[in-house]
Write a structure and sequence with these properties.
Blueprint (H helix, E strand, L loop, with lengths): L9 E5 L4 E6 L8 E6 L5 E10 L4 E4 L5 E4 L4 E4 L8 H11 L21 E5 L3 E7 L7 E8 L11 E6 L6 E6 L3 E6 L4 E7 L5 E6 L4 E6 L3 E6 L6 E6 L7 E6 L6 E6 L5 E5 L8 E3 L6 E6 L6 E6 L3 E6 L10 H8 L5 E4 L4 E6 L6 E6 L2 E6 L1
């Protein structure tokens, strides 16, 4: 137990089942709150909301906020609830792609009292939006707000592998699917804004880089960037050098949108890309000893990246030590020689990692049936 007025460095929560998906809440009135999704090879799965009880020095689950979920949720995420719209980030991304743009009105999902509701999105067989009622006494509940299904009239809906909620425009959410498409939803109206055939094979992940710009990775081994003002075209910024090697995850640097990190299936390397220089990575990080499963840029720093994998390691990298990233063989070699500045060994293979944007000194990892909150 932590001493009064002092937090521990590590908090561990043990669930009743294997944990796969994880997300931090960014609400300022709910610090140290996370959503966890189970991984049970069955129809019946669950999502629970856990919270650090600072008085007890322990992470607890509120039974009133746990709910059943069909199939394992491939991702969970709270609605972005930050002040400001980061116009600097938006301008930077648009400049990088040199597109002529019309003014885009930033929509904001608002409740009647002018604040954003406490919403949680989950993906699996469908995209679901849940509304959380969480009071200080430990009561409350969760109800299904919307079930979003783009397969009108059909019995089969292609499973969703991932999604990303747009921080600059919280009314907009993008999903990735095994049917090769990315779908952009208007969450406020519950309708599809755009659906794109994004890749030649299954799409495994999606990440926003601005209001109308997103990237995706696929089983076809490519990283592609899309601008919604030009829906007929995309930019392939990277292709795996090994044929038929799926790319599983990507993370877009929110502090410096020139950079995207990605990882391949059953591969121990983390590839860092500069969207200004397609094809060639600017760094390849090679200190993991087994497959990397998750990666995340620091929410408060443009130079720091965390990765975790089957070697039970969570590693934090400082790319600023490379002295400026540049494309080509030199950057990849420099990255290969870079050592992490911090390393943590978990009790099992790490399958999920999330860095808190509300408390950037903390990140969460998931392994087995445990979730750990770590001070970095």
């Amino acid at each position: 137990m932590a001493a009064e007025g002092q937090r521990a460095e590590i908090y561990t929560y043990e669930s009743s089942s294997l944990v796969y998906s994880c997300a931090w809440s960014v609400r300022p009135d709910r610090p140290f709150r996370l959503a966890l999704g189970s991984f049970i090879e069955d129809y019946n799965n669950r999502v629970e909301i856990i919270q650090l009880d600072e008085q007890r020095g322990a992470v607890t689950s509120n039974p009133a906020l746990a709910f059943q979920h069909p199939y394992p949720p491939t991702k969970v995420a709270f609605i972005p609830d930050k002040d400001g719209t980061r116009p600097d980030l938006l301008a930077t991304v648009r400049t990088l792609f040199c597109k002529r743009a019309q003014c885009h009105l930033l929509a904001v999902v608002l409740s009647q009292d002018g604040t954003r509701p406490d919403l949680l999105a989950t993906s699996g067989d469908f995209l679901r939006i849940w509304r959380i009622t969480d009071d200080a006494s430990g009561g409350g509940g969760v109800r299904l707000e919307k079930l979003l299904n783009n397969n009108k009239g059909g019995e089969f809906s292609a499973p969703l592998t991932s999604f990303d909620w747009n921080e600059l425009d919280p009314a907009r959410l993008g999903t990735a699917s095994i049917d090769t498409t990315c779908t952009i939803w208007d969450v406020e109206r519950g309708v599809v804004d755009t659906q794109l055939i994004a890749h030649d094979k299954e799409v495994y992940d999606i990440a926003w880089g601005g209001v109308g710009i997103f990237a995706s990775v696929s089983a076809d081994g490519s990283v592609r960037v899309f601008d919604l003002r030009d829906k007929e075209h995309s930019t392939i910024i990277y292709e795996s050098p090994q044929p038929d090697t799926p790319l599983l995850r990507l993370s877009w640097n929110k502090q410096d949108p020139r950079y995207i990190a990605s990882l391949a299936m059953d591969n121990s390397r983390v590839t860092v890309l500069d969207i200004r220089y397609p094809t060639l990575p600017v760094a390849e990080l090679q200190r993991h000893r087994a497959a990397v499963n998750a990666l995340c840029w620091a929410p408060h720093s443009s130079a720091h990246l965390c990765s975790a994998g089957d070697d039970c390691q969570a590693l934090i990298w400082d790319l600023g030590l490379l002295g400026g990233l540049g494309p080509g063989e030199g950057g990849a070699i420099a990255g290969a020689n870079l050592d992490p500045i911090l390393a943590y060994t978990a009790g099992a293979q790490v399958n999920q990692l999330q860095w808190s944007s509300a408390q950037p000194d903390w990140l969460a990892i998931c392994f087995g049936n445990k979730a750990q909150i770590l001070r970095v």
